[in-house]
Design a protein that fits this description.
The chain has helices spanning 25-29, 34-43, 51-60, 79-88, 95-103, 162-167, 172-176, 226-233, and strands spanning 2-6, 9-14, 17-21, 70-75, 108-114, 118-119, 123-126, 134-135, 138-144, 150-158, 160-161, 182-190, 200-207, 210-218, 243-246, 264-269, 273-280. The chain is α+β, with helices and mostly antiparallel strands. Bound molecules: 2,5-dioxopentanoic acid and magnesium ion (MG).
Length: 286
């Protein structure tokens, strides 16, 4: 089932019907056993919403599926990411850092965004004006509730500056954290079943009407389990409203590619749908 965060509240899509759930977003998604709770609501008489209202909400009134949570991110969880970081950081001498973290017991986890810096479906994400080499990073993103239980999944876009990170690994926060540097959406895919390794993650980038990049991979390519990543994140931190965790990029465009203003990035993950973001530049910094 898909749960959309809309202007009119939580909209549940299940078996081709829609239901408006009249509960605050944070309290709803933080419930243990969210899937059974929502199923039970439908089975015990939650009235279906009108199709045209639901379509309008999903097309025109969608928020990212986040309330008052932090967004964290894991790094170097796919071979593709390790190789790309090693390539971009050759001149800084930091290449071995990425190799080592890929094989280390402890994963790389970093703070990515407060909700106020997150863009939703069909919204703009920014590239930095002081960065010459910018990419989107398509990442299966977990929603983990305050008890450390994974309740659902969404598509994540971990916008990144490869030139800043490549210059010096200590610049990672500047390469990763800035206005509108994270995309989440279009919905929370609520399921109690583990995600299949066969789940496909696809990224398409369009410039005008031309496709300038497309590639696809499967979740089975990830080096670490989601419970392992979640376990490290929750070791010494409490998240009263739960938190989002991007699980690392599995696709990286070739080294001669950089995003331009106006490009459109589409990240699709089986079961969740497609998150579409247009690339912009913060007008304050133009
Ligand atoms: O090590 C730097 C960031 C890694 C990352 O964001 C990723 O692998 O997705
Ligand atoms: Mg990333």
């Amino acid at each position: 089932m898909q749960l959309y965060h809309t202007q009119s509240g939580a909209l549940l899509a299940y078996e081709s019907k829609f239901y408006l759930i009249d509960e605050p977003w944070d309290a709803l998604i933080n419930r243990d056993g969210l899937e059974s709770y929502l199923l039970n609501k439908i089975q015990t008489g939650q009235p279906a919403a009108a199709d045209d209202q639901a379509q309008w909400l999903m097309e025109d009134a969608l928020f990212p599926p986040i309330g008052n949570q932090e967004v964290w991110a894991a790094g170097v969880t796919y071979l593709k990411s390790r190789d790309a970081r090693m390539e971009e950081s050759q001149s800084s001498g930091a290449a071995s850092l990425y190799d080592r973290v890929y094989d280390a017991e402890r994963p790389e986890l970093f703070f990515k965004a407060m909700a106020s810096r997150v863009s939703g479906h069909k919204q703009v994400v920014y590239i930095r004006k002081d960065s010459a080499w910018n990419v989107p990073e398509p990442e299966l993103t977990l929603f983990i509730n305050s008890h450390g239980n994974i309740q659902g999944y969404t598509c994540g876009n971990d916008m990144s500056s490869r030139s800043i990170e490549g210059e010096n690994a200590l610049y990672l926060p500047q390469a990763k954290i800035y206005e509108k540097s994270a995309g989440l959406g279009p919905c929370l895919y609520v399921t109690s079943k583990p995600v299949s390794g066969e789940t496909r993650i696809n990224m398409l980038i369009k410039r005008g009407n031309v496709e300038v990049y497309e590639d696809l991979t499967k979740v089975s390519q990830i080096k670490r389990s989601f419970t392992e990543l979640t376990g490290y994140l929750f070791r010494e931190m409490d998240f009263p409203n739960g938190c989002f965790l991007m699980t690392g990029t599995c696709l990286v465009p070739s080294a001669d590619f950089t995003l331009q203003e106006g490009d459109v990035v589409e990240i699709s993950i089986d079961g969740i749908g497609t998150l579409i973001n247009t690339i912009g530049i913060n007008p304050k910094h133009k």
